[in-house]
Amino acid sequence: MKNKFYTAINISGLAVGLATGIMLLLWVQNELSYDKFHKDYQQIYRLSSHLKSNGEDLTWTGVPGPLSVFAKSIPEVQSVVRTSRDFDQNLSNKERTKISDGNVVAYVDSGFFSMFNFHFLRGNKATAFPNSSSVVLTQSTAQKLFGNEEAIGKTIQFFKNNFTVTGVLQDFPQNSSIQYDAIFPMSLLAQNFTENGGNGAWKTIDEDLGDFTFTTYVKLQPNANPVKTGQLFSDLYKKARNGESDASFQLQKLADIHLISANGNNAALRMVQIFMLVVILLLAIASINYVNLSTARSLIRAKEVSIRKIVGAQKRQLFLQFFIETMVLFCLATALAVVLIYLLMPLYNNISGKTLSFTLSDANVWKAVILAVVGTLVASSIYPALLLSSFKPIESLKGKLTSGISAAFFRKALVVFQFAISVILLVCTMIMSNQMKFIKSKNLGYDKSYVFSVPLTQEIVDHVEAVETELKKQAGIINVAVSDAYNLADVSSSTGDLDWAAKPANSNMMITQISADKDFIPTMKMKFLEGENFTGTPADSAYFILNETAVKGMGLKQPYVGQQITFHNVKGTIHGVVQDFNFQSLKEKIAPLIFFTNWNNKNILYVRTTAANAQQAIAAVRKQYKKYAGDSPFSYYFLDKTFEAQYKSEQRAGTLFNAFAGIAIFISCLGLFGLATYTAQVKTKEIGIRKVLGASVASVVQLISKDFLKLVLIAIVIAIPVAWWAMHKWLEDFAYRIDISWWIFIIAAFIASLIALMTVSFQAVRAAIANPVKSLRTE
Fold first, then answer.
1. Percent residues over pLDDT 70 in the chain
2. Between the chain's N and C termini, which has fewer beta carbons within 10 Å?
3. Residue 460 near residue 500 (C-beta atoms within 8 A)
4. Per-residue confidence at 403, pLDDT binned at 50, 70, 90?
């Protein structure tokens, strides 16, 4: 109560630091907890495929179906489960009075519920799939289709077929890398595959060695070697292909899937580690405020300590006294931090994209609170308590005590550390923001503005030409096209089934494939390097359009048009070559790509409109959709929004770093403000004498400010190379990225210096304009 100003600075600085640290720790906890709720998660692995394409390594998370058959002959494998999923599917009740759109539907092997610990609310995991007409729904999906009625035994429709609900699962945990809305037996997929003629000579999914689409999980025996087991899968596959494949397979821990991609890219894990480091640094900055103010004010408390020692207080007792003082402050700061967290958690979840909750009944919350509070308490209390309990009483009472070179140096070092962290976060924020702006504005090689896509039902696909003809008549629609590319910002369908005359014997070039009609390339405003578009006639079945990267990778010489190639056993000619465009994340280099027309699976409608006519165009498409699809839900996605969604995690990280930088600077300035106030108090008489002798306000301000600004400049010099290195590493994850400009560091340095100057100057000016007569009065 006696020192309200310093107490307020300490409590507010600690509270903001603790609140931020605890919320970040909850985020880090959540990221590190993915898939660890499964009982045997340490024994479960995901298989991934590794292939060579023109000398480059390609990695897929999908593997061929027969690998689950091979697993039976591998002693290290305890069990194996294949899964296959489809996105954006429609489910309805039998009467079609309730229809659920946009579902992720999975087909799984019978051992799925034994390997993974997903909780059944209704039904039994042992009898979940009595036949191929069974389905297990999540709680949310069952609620959408049947409300509060009992779902077990009810019938749902999927692709006009009836399925009986045999189980209801509790919704998949948010920290699960496996997320489905409805689960069907793998026997259904196997049955459909065989009825549709299979894949060439392979008539069952257990034989099809060429389809790398199954996400396959393997549970190993205790102490089994995952590297050796992966090699055994590779050997068995190569043997089945008569040695004509260079594909290999590796096992990745289930607990690593969320943060480390199958190709070993650990950018997500690195972000978690960076955030953990930010937690430590923010808490350190908050601790530094307390340490600095406590040591700076040590002179004021010197006589108190000395008198206590003379009347018999031991060093241990004094240490305990100051430690308890700190604990009292921490209790108040922690209480304020909890209030701040409750107030800020909705905003924090909105920024981070999480659904974290701060509930004091949650053990994980207590772990985060205890880690943050205890860590900060220990860091901030021990040194001041040792320093304050170590005064020599005789010197203190004679007034000969000085703060000591070591204490003053330590204080300055801590101020430098505080502002160095603030500048690093400031630079990181600016570079992240510039990279996101670069991504948004980059020329992708096609025009994504005012284009939306609509997933089509089979009824519309059967009448798609009539739909396109009708839509082209609409005034608000510039062009329409159909394709099998569900998301043009992330096309993933690839194949190695491509041959050409000069193909080297050992070449295995993987090429991304898009089935599209003659209107697709014009609709997307892609440019031709050579040749021309499809003609819209039956001749198109023998025409192929490639991108620049493909023809270069194949080693072809110009002119490219007219050269013979064979794709999926169809002989044809190159009809055109389009300029390269980005059809995957900007973290990836542009890969080889081929357009073709002779597949009847073009179930995505693309519509180009204008800003003024967008709503009119959507209404026109909806009308045609309802005409053929009836009561099936209509949905659409604008390409620019879909593109931006790919970088949501980076955008969120940038937003969070904005907040971190602001908080770090705020806490640092609180400490600087407190130290400037203390300095002004200590120099009260000196300032009074200087003013009496004619010193100006400006010279007094300079006297107080210059030492602090020197420390901030030292912090900037230290921070710049560290920030450059950190951002250089972060940008390595992007194949297309900005150059780090020198002006970013100048701006960051200027902002930090300006904030520090404003913080210190406020107190300096206040001291400089004080009445010198009052300053020179004795106690």
1. 91
2. C
3. no
4. very low
Query: With left for phi above 0 and alpha for psi between -120 and 50, is residue 507 left, alpha or beta?
Result: beta
Q: Please name the residue ranges forming H helices in 212-266.
A: 226-240
Question: Is the pLDDT assigned to residue 772 strictly greater than 80?
Answer: no
Nearest to 258 by CA among 52, 433, 37, 432: 37
**pLDDT 10s digits, 666-716:** 877 777 776 677 676 667 778 788 878 888 878 877 877 788 888 889 999
Residues 6 or more apart whose Cβ sits within 8 Å of residue 685: 775, 776
Q: What is the 8-class DSSP label of residue 168?
A: E
Three-state SS for 567-627 is: ECCEEEEEEEEECCCCCCCCCCCCCCEEEECCCCCCCEEEEECCCCCHHHHHHHHHHHHHH
Summarize pLDDT for 145-179 with one digit per residue, the tens.
999 999 999 999 998 899 999 999 999 999 999 99
642 neighbors 489 (Cβ within 8 angstroms)? yes
CA dist 455 and 25 (Å) reads 40
Tell me the pLDDT tens digit for each residue of 224-276.
999 999 999 999 999 998 887 788 999 999 999 999 988 888 878 888 888 88
Beta bridge partners of 164: 134, 155
- The mean of the pLDDT values for the chain is 85
Of 381, 382, 299, 391, nearest in space to 679 by CA: 299
Output phi, psi for 229, to 5 deg: -65, -40
Query: Which residue bears the tokens 């609180």?
Result: 670
Confidence category of residue 405, pLDDT binned at 50, 70, 90 = very low
Q: CB–CB of 295/387 below 8 Å?
A: yes
- Beta strand 134-138 with 155-158 is unpaired
- What tens digit of pLDDT does each residue of 79-124 get? 999 999 998 888 999 988 898 888 999 999 999 999 999 999 999 9
- Is the CB of residue 482 less than 8 Å from the CB of residue 595? no
- The CA angle 658-664-667, to the nearest 5 degrees, is 140
- Global confidence as pTM: 0.81
First to last CA, the chain: 21
Tokens coding 91: 């489910």
Which residue, chain included where needed, has tokens 């509790």?
170
How far is the C-alpha of 496 from the C-alpha of 493, rounded, in Å?
11
Helix (H, G, I), strand (E, B) or coil at 545: strand
pLDDT at 684: 72
Cβ 352 vs Cβ 346: under 8 Å: no
Q: What is the pLDDT of residue 133?
A: 94
Give residue-wise pLDDT tens across range 723-761: 999 889 888 888 888 898 888 899 988 888 888 888 777
Mapped onto helix, strand or coil, the DSSP state of residue 69 is helix
Q: Which of 530, 518, 536 is nearest to 479 (CA)?
A: 518
| Three-state secondary structure string covering 642-658 | HHHHCCHHHHHHHHHHH
Burial of 506 (0-12, 13-18, 19+ CB in 10 A): exposed
Q: Whose CA is closest to 527, among 467, 577, 569? A: 577
Check: CB of residue 369 under 8 Å from CB of residue 29. Answer: no
CA separation for the pair 416, 264 (Å, rounded)? 37
At 513 the three-state DSSP class reads strand
Distance in angstroms (rounded) separating the CA atoms of residues 523 and 472: 12
Question: Between β-strands 99-108 and 182-185, what pairing exists: parallel, antiparallel or unpaired?
Answer: parallel
pLDDT of residue 734: 82
